[in-house]
Amino acid sequence: MSLIGKNIRTLRQKNGWSQGEVAKRLAISIPAFSKIETGITDVNISRLDQIATLFEVSTIDLISKEGEHHQSENAAEISMLREKIAFKEEEIISLQKKVIELYEELRNKDKAAG
Prior knowledge:
Helix content is 80%, strand content 0%. With 114 residues, the chain is an all-alpha fold. The protein folds into two domains: 3-63, 434 Repressor (Amino-terminal Domain) (Orthogonal Bundle), CATH 1.10.260; 73-114. The radius of gyration is 29 Å and the shape is rod-shaped. InterPro entries: Cro/C1-type_HTH, Lambda_DNA-bd_dom_sf.
């Protein structure tokens, strides 16, 4: 079974649909859909788009290994979060320096008064 066929079968099963139900929604015969799902028939882009629309997923989700497409999305989010962390770390360091300065200033005033 091809990767695309496997992904289509998984989506069909998640929706609880039979091959006949999906074939009817795609306006093709059951054997034609079965051949798509088993990888016997190559699927053109317009049919992939039609199937993706039916299952409410992107075409990329149909042709990618599970989790592969989402990894690139996660990488961008991870990069953004790293930038936020770096910025927060800089803020923390700045605040720590300010606390130290204020402590030393207070200590020096106490020494001068005492």
